[in-house]
Specification:
Elements: H1 3-6, E1 14-20, E2 26-32, H2 34-43, E3 47-50, E4 55-58, E5 67-74, E6 81-87, E7 102-105, E8 108-111, H3 119-122
Parallel strand pairs: 1-6
Antiparallel strand pairs: 1-2, 3-4, 5-6, 7-8
Length: 123
């Protein structure tokens, strides 16, 4: 997998966009290092690198809301990944399906959609 070394990492990380493989909805943006990407490819479950905790994590490790990998793409500059996934439960730790549940419209921030799980009961 030489191409993993050809990706353009910044400070050892590359942004990874998780997209629902059926609906095309963007669910979240996280970061991967080479180890997370290799584990993702091997297990077919998304692993990311937490910048705040400074460690690898499996999406859904504590919530059970795993992301099964269906396809992985890189952009033309090879500095960003797009991972098409089948999401179990919600992708957002706040209880929403997508982390992009807030819309900025006419200068105001509006919440869109409904929570699909209670984070207080999951975490």
């Amino acid at each position: 997998m030489k191409w993993i070394n050809d990706l353009k990492y910044k400070d050892g990380l590359i942004p990874a966009i998780a997209q629902d493989c059926k609906t095309g909805e963007v669910l979240m943006l996280a970061y991967m290092n080479k180890q997370a990407l290799k584990k993702t490819i091997k297990t077919k479950k998304c692993h990311y690198y937490s910048r705040s905790r400074k460690k690898l994590w499996l999406k859904g490790e504590s919530s059970g809301h795993i992301q099964k990998v269906k396809a992985i793409f890189t952009d033309c500059d090879m500095d960003c990944l797009l991972i098409k996934i089948a999401q179990k439960g919600g992708a957002c730790h706040t209880g929403y399906k997508s982390c992009f549940y807030r819309e900025i419209k006419a200068g105001k921030l509006k919440t869109r959609g409904k929570k699909i799980f209670d984070p207080n009961k999951v975490y």
